[in-house]
Design a protein that fits this description.
Layout: H1 21-42, H2 53-60, H3 67-84, H4 96-106, H5 109-122, E1 127-133, E2 139-145, E3 156-162, H6 169-172, H7 176-187, H8 190-195
Antiparallel strand pairs: 1-2, 1-3
Length: 197
């Protein structure tokens, strides 16, 4: 049994002009696909060919002898989650339960935006910035390097922004702060985030 590349939840041009169709052709069609191809080559020899993606991640996290498997599995999961963290016409201040949780945890939506952007901008090199649900029921911001992800730290992901350069370089070049602003203002899928609470 092979893990398969999930369909994007929207057409490749749907996030334009913030994220161009060309970026998605590379990011989804090349990068995400490459992680998946590598993972499916690595799991049979590790006795993980029949495991779910989440099981592969849990069984290989923090095991340096299985770092290659973990990195590819986590990147498949991270990217799939990222696609759902965005939607055409998204962004702006959330309402409902997720909006209440953000105001409760950060004081205001503007404070959340400042903290989320600071975490993403401050992630040295490649990685991710997440809104997560902690074990105590509070929400917080977590940044992770490379393929690392919240489930490896006992936290539940609510939404994520990819801060690897390939996520934004064709559209924003080296302007990561502008990409993160556009993500929050015009793309973030708050309904998806709330569904993960």
């Amino acid at each position: 049994m092979s893990i398969v590349l999930p369909e994007l939840p929207y057409p490749k041009d749907a996030l334009s002009p913030v994220i161009s169709e060309r970026t998605l052709e590379f990011h989804y069609g090349k990068h995400h696909q490459a992680y998946l191809t590598n993972l499916n080559k690595l799991t049979p020899d590790a006795g993980l060919a029949e495991a779910s993606l989440e099981d592969v991640i849990q069984k290989t996290a923090n095991d340096s002898s299985k770092a290659g498997i973990f990195n590819n599995a986590a990147q498949v999961w991270n990217h799939t989650f990222y696609w759902h963290s965005m939607k055409p016409g998204g962004g702006g201040e959330p309402r409902g339960k997720i909006g209440d949780k953000i105001r409760e945890s950060f004081g205001s939506y503007d404070s959340f935006v400042a903290d989320f952007k600071a975490a993403g901008i401050g992630q040295f090199g490649s990685g991710w910035v997440w809104l997560v649900l902690d074990q105590n029921g509070k929400i917080s911001i977590l940044k992770t390097a490379n393929a690392d992800l919240p489930m490896a730290h006992g936290k539940k992901a609510l939404l994520t922004a990819d801060v690897w350069e390939h996520a934004y370089y064709l559209d924003f070049q080296n302007r990561r702060p502008d990409y993160l602003s556009a993500f929050l203002e015009r793309l973030v899928n708050w309904e998806f985030a709330e569904s993960n609470l």
